[in-house]
Amino acid sequence: MDTEIARPIPKDTLMEALSIKIVELSQERVVATMPVMEATRQPFGLLHGGASVALAETVASVGTFNLIDQANQRAVGLEINANHIRGKRDGIVTAVGIPLHKGRTTMVWDIKMMDEEEKLICVSRCTMAVINVKSVD
Question: What angle is formed at CA 63 by the lines to CA 60 and CA 81, rounded to 5 degrees?
Fold first, then answer.
């Protein structure tokens, strides 16, 4: 699939709640942004680690879904880890995900999250399972 820009945010999803936007999507790279705002901060005013992980898994999920048979398969998170490198109080974080492994039943993604100055905020690795949709007879 060719690179697409500014895909609409699906309604009534975590992506909408956290204002996650997919700004680039290809077979080799996914880029998404998320604002550091009230909904994505922890009580001490810093970007919440869980919000960073949600952004990372979103990138891996969208990237995997882009690579599979969308009519007959789904992408679901199997495992994720994250190292939070630097705190952030406001602005925008950008996550760039690249597939490390593109298998039939699993895919592994490397996601790096940076601030506006391209300082590393978080690194994550996410394993996605590719599952078949059960037909309804």
Answer: 10
Look up 24 and say whether it is catalytic: no
Q: What is the pLDDT of residues 23-33, one digit of tens each?
A: 999 999 999 99
CA dist 130 → 72, 77, 82 (Å):
10, 9, 21
Which candidate in 4, 16, 28, 57 is catalytic? 57
Contact 60, 77 (CB under 8 A): yes
| Amino acid, single-letter form, for residue 122 | C
* Spatial CA neighbour of 125 closest among 86, 83, 62: 83
Dihedral sign from CA coordinates of 80, 85, 90, 93: negative
| Residue 84, H or E segment | strand 73-84
Q: What is the pTM of this model?
A: 0.92
Rounded to an integer, what distance in angstroms lies between the CA atom of residue 11 and that of residue 91?
23
